[in-house]
Amino acid sequence: MAPMYDPTLTFARVWAVLSPEVVLVLTGFLIMVLDLFLPKQKKTYLPVLGLLALAVSFGLVLTHFGKTDQLANIMVITDDYGNMFKLLFLAGTFLTLLMSHDFAQHVKIPKPEYTYVLLFATVGAMFMASALDLITLFVGLELLSLSSYILVAIHRSNAKATEGGMKYLIIGGVASALFLYGASFVYGLSGTTNIAVASQALYGLWFQYKVLILISFVLILAGIGIKLSIAPFHMWTPDTYEGAPTPITSFLATVSKAAGFAFVFRIFIWGYSANIKEWYMFLVVLAALSMIVGNLAAMTAKNIKRMMAYSSIAQAGYLLVPLAVLGHAKGEFNLWQSISQMVFYLAAYIFATAGAFAIISVVNRDAGNETIDSFAGLYKRSPFLAIAMSFFLLSMAGLPITAGFFGKVFIIFGAINGSFYWLAAIMFVTSVASFYYYIGVMKRMFVDFETALPVSAVRVDSSVSVTVWISLLVTVVLGIVPNLLMNVLNNLKWFG
Amino acid sequence: MFTLLTVLTFLPLLGAVILFFVPRESRSLIRAVAFLATLGSLVLALVAFAGFQSGSPDMQYTVNKEWIHISNAFLDKSLAISYNMGIDGLSMPLVLLTAMTSVLAVVASWRIEKRAKEYFIWFLILVTGMFGVFTALDLFLFFLFLEMTLIPMYFLLAIWGGERRGPVAVKFLIYRGLASVGILIAFIGLAYQAANATGTITLDVLQIAQTFKQAGADVISTGMRQGLFLLLFLAILIEEAFVPFHTWLPDSHEQAPSAVSMVLGGVLVKIGAYVLLRVGVGVLPDAVQHYGTLIAALGVINIIYGALVAMVQNDWRRLLAFSTISHMGVFLIGLASLKPEGLQGAMFMIVSSGLLSGLLFFLTGAIYERTETLEIRELGGLSKPMPVLSGFLLAGALASLGLPGMSGFVSEILSFMGAFATFPKLAACGTLGIILGAVYLLWAMQRTTFGPVRAAREGIRDATALEYVPMVLFLAMIILIGVYPAILGDLVNQTLQSLVTRIGG
């Protein structure tokens, strides 16, 4: 259905649809202004303001559940699908900002800028989850990307960070260009940028312009594949993850990636769904490739952040499986199932990753390097961190009593249910192979006491403790009673 | 929810959680918590044993609650994973064995000083995993507990093992991990075949067995059954350290601390045997029958090969590991016979071998503490300074080679009776193993305990009061089963009968 053009764009309408985003944007500007007027020692409280805004925004998103509304002028919709993703983004950013508090005490980064740029990046991600129009989508994507470039390179005196930021900027620019080029084909064929309208046009023109439509599909997939860091578009990931400040790495691995997935589902399921049988194999191949490449490369990594980068490539592969499986879907029922599986796994992945990066930032600083060996004997230095880290690693590896395990179980069952046996098998085998490097980190923490470089106890800032505790609780609770979240997901009215 | 089995299974885990908050320095408190947690489980296991209806083949003390709901697992139907526990004649003896071995292993760990707190935490997690494996009736739950035994064991080997602990722990992890994967795939296959046949998905092992029994060859093809069994069997060969996948077991035993060895040989290596009985014979009896000769032949190979290799070992722990492999070969031929007495012998062999592992690995640990070597060449004349320990070692060796009046004899007799009835030629070859067993054990005993005493060992102490506890208890159980086999036979009989009636039916 084409949305009605609504000539009166009142604040009330904007607030009704976009209240969570509005809160974040206004807080961002407020912090900007305060940054100019506040005395230096007061500025340390600005990140707290950011945390507050995120919490308020989270609450506002919760009030939106079960309603659908749209803002026709800027083509933004609010529905449960977008709301679910917004919750994940806000949680991811909240944890990022929380762990940054500790990080910023030791590394000279401008806190106020850092905070508001992070808020703007989140707003970009939220737009990607709720836009209904290619232009709005692109604006959201760019807002997220530009903010991310700044954040990666925000530690200006560090050569590695600058290099990572530069690489990310160039590759990100290419990604945006690819997406735009692909979107231009859609516009040229259908004469509209509204995804819902365009999808009908694409369906009608399929036989006539099959090649062009497929070209547009591949271009958009390549552009967004870079954001998702799926193989073969993953080359930037290890360098950028290694160079970026650790909290920002966490942001890239959680929020930025989740935004990409929100976007992929929205555009491919809405825009191209009519001909899913023709293109799902692309996704299947990319999923399989990501799982294989990511896990194999992670085994060779010496630097923990690089290892996490490769691991996140593999995780992106797992996350693509539910979407790829839709090629065999028998009904709408399967679509809701697939989205639920993906969102569940994404939740498991986001909390495990954020928790792991919070620990990584502390441990690396304590050891003075970023190798995996910096974890040697961590159990002796900080039992709590070692045990929490084990849970996060096990969740990513997909071992029982963690959220990641059930996330994988749901996805594998979904793949088998769609009779994609070989894809399920690849997922299973690569997951088993991934134990090698996840357990390798555990081995260093618990076994290698002799080679432990720092022998004193790790000092853990309370902000990191809280980050780790939140992540740990979610990881373990969802690992014991996954139906807490799964039942909610299964009963959502995703697209109204 | 808080039924007997739940408490029994999770009490050690609760102990591990409590231990986490106990300061590292208070070693006596740490030991007390570990001891009480395992002792509590032992008491509960005895309570369960006292109230066990041995006349009924059904599951007892059952608890069944839906735990996780997956809405479209297969054919767009939903799957419920249940917290489904219960014990019958197959699991009761093994639960008792686990309870006893774990308490005594805690006693044997009394002197652990290196990172004691972590040691007991890992150990207690491992114990919960072992209890869970024998009490879970849901395939998924079973697998969860199986994984719960894997990781703690890896750390117990990797941190508290001997000189080559690192590589050996990794080897253990890889072998057992592969076995777990194989078992998991076989389970999934079984569940799907059953779901295909009935249209409802269940992971309850008893229901799956029922489905397989009722479904004709047109519903679940014979080829599929045999394929699934072969996959399961292959996984169990690794899990159980059968030739040719046995190399991880001697290595692990050689490197593990003696208390860990007690649990490894006493319980952990019996999990595969239990799965073979519960799932192999329970769900796929036709396939077991079809491959009976193959299984029995493998059993005979294990008996002979284990015994021959044990003969040339120079380290007591490796010798005992190969002796275990040889014993479990007897289990295989008993099982392959599918005769009531053969299956009973197989069950006896699991328990007997478990008790013997517990006793002998405890003894070798005690000797190692005093002599700092277990190389048979380096030992000699131990009966002079340590008459008690040597005496118990001799008793253990005699039980191991099947002296009448001990548990080993009963197990071997029953297994071979079953085997002779089904495959006489193979069984005849297998009996050679009994002779070989006598040879390597007595020869090793003779070199260890007799002969001249080394000057360095003149003044070493004999067994302490604390060490008497495990030795006496294990030996008492071994002799009890030997002279009064009915105590175990009555437990397992009904369940085995109901298994046997399925065969060919």
From TrEMBL, chain A:
Entry's localization field: Cell membrane; Membrane
A Gene Ontology molecular-function term? NADH dehydrogenase (quinone) (non-electrogenic) activity
The residue ranges crossing the membrane are 12-38, 45-65, 85-104, 116-132, 168-189, 209-230, 251-273, 279-298, 310-330, 342-363, 384-413, 419-439, 466-486
Q: Which residues form the NADH:quinone oxidoreductase/Mrp antiporter transmembrane domain?
A: 131-432
> EC number(s)?
7.1.1.-
For biological process, the GO terms are:
ATP synthesis coupled electron transport
Write down the Pfam families for this protein, in alphabetical order: Proton_antipo_M
Which superkingdom, per the lineage?
Answer: Bacteria
Catalyses:
a quinone + NADH + 5 H(+)(in) = a quinol + NAD(+) + 4 H(+)(out)
Alphabetical list of InterPro entries matching this protein: NADH-Q_OxRdtase_suN/2, ND/Mrp_TM
Recite the UniProt keywords alphabetically. Answer: Cell membrane, Membrane, NAD, Quinone, Translocase, Transmembrane, Transmembrane helix, Transport
Q: What does this protein do?
A: NDH-1 shuttles electrons from NADH, via FMN and iron-sulfur (Fe-S) centers, to quinones in the respiratory chain. The immediate electron acceptor for the enzyme in this species is believed to be a menaquinone. Couples the redox reaction to proton translocation (for every two electrons transferred, four hydrogen ions are translocated across the cytoplasmic membrane), and thus conserves the redox energy in a proton gradient.
The record's annotation in NCBIfam families points to: NDH_I_N
Which family would the database say this protein is a member of? Answer: Belongs to the complex I subunit 2 family.
Q: What is this protein called?
A: NADH-quinone oxidoreductase subunit N
Q: Which species does the entry assign this protein to?
A: Collibacillus ludicampi
